[in-house]
Each structure stands twice: as structure tokens, then as C-alpha cells.
Fold these 2 entries.
Entry 1:
Amino acid sequence: MNPIKSFPVAVPLRSRTTVGAEAAFVDTSVRCPVRGLELPLEECAECRRDAGRFVDVESGNAFICCEVEPETSPDPLLQSEICLVPEPENPANRTPVSEIMTTHVVCVSPDLPVRELERLLLETGISGVPVVDAEGRPIGMVSKTDLVRRHSRPPGLVGDFELVRDVMITLAFCLPANESVARAAALMAFETVHRVPVVGSRGQVIGLVSPLDILRWLARGSGYVMPNTAPRTDDPSLFDFSAPTMDSDLPFAD
Ligand code: SF4
């Protein structure tokens, strides 16, 4: 009997940082090419195909090296409920959002104090973040617009101890990772939203796509070199709420 041959596949690691009232938690996951599922990285440690981790020195992105047999095939792609007539000739219909999305996403829990959310957005330069439940599934969105709206309330109607759940929008338009760039663009344009969480097979946030991601993809496709201008979200001090920096010098502070 012929031995089963395998070949190495570089599978990018994705991270979701959830900022809560007490601490920030990082969940790292991979899109398993064999099982066709989004899996916690810990499951790879139990897998015989795990051949180690490496970091691409140029981009700084981390990968798991996965030994895949040619006979294995991923599960069927997830189906989208968004209705649109596809145009196969258009690359935007063939390219999945997973290829252009931000894969290191900052999320917040609904019990995060608004003051800490203000600090987080200011220090990272992020305009808005998904609000997630304990499983990392999106339950809403919160942005600088919501904070400005809060501060425009009449005096006396802005509570000192409000939480994210008091100001967030309890609706999040999401897309599965295999959905096309075209549908992401259509969704953002139709619903006038600026960021769409990308969810894995268990409904958890695994990425975020914005109009800027689509513009970068278009520019790269035309031969332009695009710098990586994603906001810094890998500095643990950004989530250290014991640091006394939230004060009246911040634009959103009371
Ligand atoms: S190491 Fe195993 S569980 Fe992890 S991505 Fe590869 S096949 Fe999937």
C-alpha cells in the first residue's frame, strides 16, 4: 500500500481581543483546511497534522504549518442568506472576504465602562468595534458616532458610570468568511455601515472588513503597493485600565 503523502499548508492565525470591565482576553483561532471549520488554536496542539508555527518576518503575521493529505477536503462552504445575483467574471465575486479582512480584531464586552471604551478608541485609532457575548459572537456595534451622540444629550442625561451596553447599537450586520468581497461592498453600501464583522462557523468574530480593506484590495489588484496601516492593537498596555490616563484631557471625557 502506498504511504499517504502530505504537503505543508501555511494557515494564518487570527486573534480576537475582547476588552471587558476587568481584563482583556485574546482568543486565537485558525481556519482548518481539513475540517473546513474555524477552530481554537488549542485544538491544533492535539492534531497530528500540526507541524509547528512560524512568523513571516516581512509582515509579522503568524502561521501554523499544517500537513495536509491531498485526499482531505474541506467541508462545504457556508451559505449566505444575503440575496444577490452573482457575476462570476468579476473578481470581487470570486474573492472571499477572508482574504482582505483584518484578522486581528478588537472587540468589547457590553459591561465595559464607556470611559474605557473612549480611551480604547482614542489610543488605537479604531473608529468602532464589535460588541461580543462571552462566546465571541457579535451582539452589536459601538463607534465614535455613538459616543458623540451620547455627549450631545442634554446635561444631566449623561451618566457617569454608563457601560457599552447603554450606548451600543444592538444590531450587527455580519458575513461568513467565505462570502465575497462584492457582497461585503453591497452590504456596507446598502446598510450604510462602515465595518462588518466576519464570523466563523460557530458564529464567533474572526475578522472585520471595512471599505478601506476593499479599497486596498482594489489598489493592490491594479499593481499599487499598499502599506500596512492597520491600527496597533497588539500592545497589552492599550488594555491596561489600571493606568490613570482617562481624564478630562480626552475629547470624549465628561
Ligand atoms: S493542525 Fe490539524 S486542526 Fe490545526 S489547522 Fe491543521 S488540520 Fe486543522
Entry 2:
Amino acid sequence: MSKSKIGVVANPREPLHFASFPKPNLEAFENPLRTQMAIHYLETSGALERLERYDAPKASVEDALLVHSPYLVDTVSLMSEIGSGQLGESAYASPELLRSALLAVGGAKRALQAVITGEVQHSFAIVRPPGHHASFSNPMGLCYFNNVAIAATIALGDNNVNRVSIVDIDDHHGNGTSEIFYARRDVQYISVHEYDYENFGVGHFNEIGWGEGIGTNVNIPLVEATPDSSYEEACRRVITPALKQFKPDLIMVSAGFDAHFSDPVGNMNVDSKTFWKYGRELASLSASLGCRGTVWVLEGGYNPLAIGPCIHACLEGLGGQECPKLYDQIAREENELIVESNREVFDQVLGALEPHW
Ligand SMILES: [Zn+2]
């Protein structure tokens, strides 16, 4: 084991995929500034000094084929050559798309490798484009290759990893990851998200898996403007018991920060303290369950000034440090009605799943 127990994988500084749209188009917010400013924040705050740092290598097309159809991979490849065009809902090509998507997969793989080989206990891949909306055949929602799903599949090839849990804390439901592993009993998918009332059914608590996978898909659909206390309660009442029941050998995290109150895309009401708590709790569970460690991969989070503090808070939680006082932690009101509504959601989630645990 090296001196540092946490590693960070950084996207390269070269020009990367950017589908050129004006704001307020959703696509405009998923841009290279996100990872550049996050890494700049971690460098200037001194947070990176105590960590192992790795560059994201480029993955191969064969890695993408581990969870995606040849049709999806060919489409991403061909439209990158063309340099523009629409691949799916909110998924557009640029000349840098294929290379950037493979670098993001490579970053997730490197983060996984650092934990699997024991170089570090926990790792965080600060990469883009994100992945959790990309399903077997469909790029969508700013996602092309499902970075976490590919890394989880590779992890299961290790002799000591028979079960992987993926905890998705992005503001949105990771429909792609959920679909890819929906009938699998060796991959647990747990998503805490803002429920999309315009897409009834997607991310609903009654989606609990299929066939051998029944009970392994855990959706926690929270109401809009959910505050920190409900996220803490979701962790205590659902995520922690679900992980204890599943007993994974490895915990992966789809680490989106668009639930931050300042995010221009998500509509929740949390700050970096919540992400510190999730870091602390998942590190503690990883140790008590005898996991190899935790592997975090960036998903959403579209305020480039908030992603850095949120990752910093996660890393401090993972390292067992006190919660740092960061500039995004400002006093905000909690709506008790929202907290009560979420309590009903937790009851419904557990009611749907517990018979299968
Ligand atoms: Zn999101």
C-alpha cells in the first residue's frame, strides 16, 4: 500500500469533446470547463497534495463493447469522423467525441485499477463526458459510453470481485446503468435522484430488477428541492441497509454533483456537506463489509464553481477527515413538507424491496 490511500485520475488538459450550443441549452453546460475547473480547484486548494495522481489513459473500442451494442459504438465512431450530428436525445457529436469518450472510459478503468491492485483504497476519476444515461444501444442525456458500467464489468473479471454495487448520487436517474444490469444478480444498482414527473415510471421505486436480478435495482426517487437532511436519511434508511444486504466486494459511485443547490440543470437543495457525508459513510461501509475499496467516477454537475468543492468534500470524507468549511456551504431553508414527502418515499422503496432481500 502506498503512502496515500486515495487516488485521483484527471482528464488530460488537451481540447476535448464539446457540442457547441448556446446557453440555456442543456448541451452547453456539459463542457471542458467542468473538469478543468474541478482539477484547478483541487490544485490551488492544496487538496491534491496528499493524493496519488494519475492521468486518464485512452480505453479501446473493445472496452466500450463490453456493455454496448456494436451499433452504438459504430455510431459514436462514425459521427465523430463526420464531426457533428445528433446521436440521441441531448447527445450530439463533435470531432473530439470518440477520443474524449474513450479517455473517460480509460479514466474510470485507471481509477478501478488503482483500487483493485491495492495502490490506493479509494479513487476518483474526474472525467467527462459522463456515462450513466448511456444504455446498451442508446447514447442520450450528454452520455455516450457508460464509464461506470464498463469499469464495473471489468471489475467482475477479477478473481476477488464477485459482486459490485454502484451507488448513483447524480441528480438524475442513471437509466443506462440501471438497464444494463437490470437482470443481473452480481451487480447492485442504487440510485438516489430527483424524480422526473414528466417521465413517469423512469426511476420509480417499483423498478426493482428482473429475473435473477430482482431486488438488486434500488431507486430512491426524491421530490424536487430535496434538502441535505433527506439525502442523509436516504443514505441511513435505504442505501446503507441495501449495501449491507448485498455485501459487495467493490463499491463504485456514479458521482454527479447536479443535486447541488447552485446547479443550473438539477433542482435539488444540497451543498458539499452532503457529499462529504456520502464519502465518509461509503468509506466506512467499504471497510466494514470487507470491500476492496470505492471507485468514484464523475457524472453530472454543471456549475463549474461547485464541482471542485463537492469533489474536495467527498475526498475528505473518504479519507476520514473532518468536513472542510467550503464557500458553497451557506445557510438555506429546509421545507418540512418536502422532508415528510421523502419519508413516505423511503417507506415505499423499502416496502417494494424488502420482500426480495
Ligand atoms: Zn445528472
